[in-house]
């Protein structure tokens, strides 16, 4: 039986209320957001394996680049030539990678109960949940913040009756934010963080209509 997500979260909160991860289910009241990105072997969550995880904290209008997570995992068997074309990560790049269990522990500790920001963030959360749920008995309960939605909500009034281009490269260009180490988990996480800060605290982006 498929349990609706809302009901499952209530059950998970109850099941873990006295455990070591109870704080993850508490409402977050601070001013920090965690920009997070995963590089994987496939864009299909069911087939994909995580290769690297990058995350950086945002506090108010500052990207805390000194407070970041940059994890490389051991190369999975599914790391093939076809998947390398997507993320440009080779097995040799993961020679010092850590075990998935250690990576998940680091992610939970780093993120805490802060909101998670990303570009197509639900994909990254679903990829992490794929491995977190069997091990810990819960899914990430954090609020998700989708960068493309934030961007769309700010500029949609300029495109009455038209479509808003929500491609990563387009958003970066319109915000005048350089793409740092594109297709690396940490590089994408920092770039998304800079975009978010610009959208929330900077001048409205210049957009070609």
Automatic annotation (TrEMBL):
GO terms for molecular function: 3'-5' exonuclease activity; nucleic acid binding. NCBIfam families: PRK09145.1. This is 3'-5' exonuclease. The lineage of its organism: Bacteria, Pseudomonadati, Pseudomonadota, Gammaproteobacteria, Oceanospirillales. PANTHER family: BLR4117 PROTEIN (PTHR30231:SF7), DNA POLYMERASE III SUBUNIT EPSILON (PTHR30231). GO terms for biological process: DNA metabolic process. GO terms for cellular component: cytosol. It comes from the Bacteria. Residues 32-205 form the Exonuclease domain.
């Amino acid at each position: 039986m498929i349990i609706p997500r809302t009901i499952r979260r209530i059950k998970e909160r109850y099941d873990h209320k006295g455990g070591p991860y109870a704080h993850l289910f508490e409402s977050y009241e601070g001013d920090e957001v965690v920009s997070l990105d995963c590089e994987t072997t496939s864009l299909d969550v069911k087939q994909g394996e995580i290769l690297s995880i990058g995350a950086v904290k945002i506090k108010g209008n500052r990207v805390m680049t000194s407070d970041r997570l940059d994890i490389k995992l051991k190369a999975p068997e599914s790391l093939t030539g076809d998947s390398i074309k997507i993320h440009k990560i080779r097995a040799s790049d993961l020679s010092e990678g850590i075990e998935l269990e250690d990576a998940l522990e680091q992610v939970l500790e780093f993120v805490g109960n802060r909101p998670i920001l990303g570009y197509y963030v639900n994909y990254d959360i679903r990829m992490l949940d794929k491995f977190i749920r069997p091990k810990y008995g819960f899914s990430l309960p954090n609020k998700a913040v989708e960068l493309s939605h934030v961007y769309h909500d700010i500029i949609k009034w300029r495109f009455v009756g038209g479509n808003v281009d929500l491609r990563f490269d387009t958003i970066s260009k319109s915000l005048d934010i350089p793409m740092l180490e594109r297709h690396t988990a940490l590089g994408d996480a920092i770039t998304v963080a800079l975009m978010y800060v610009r959208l929330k605290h900077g001048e409205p982006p210049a957009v070609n209509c």
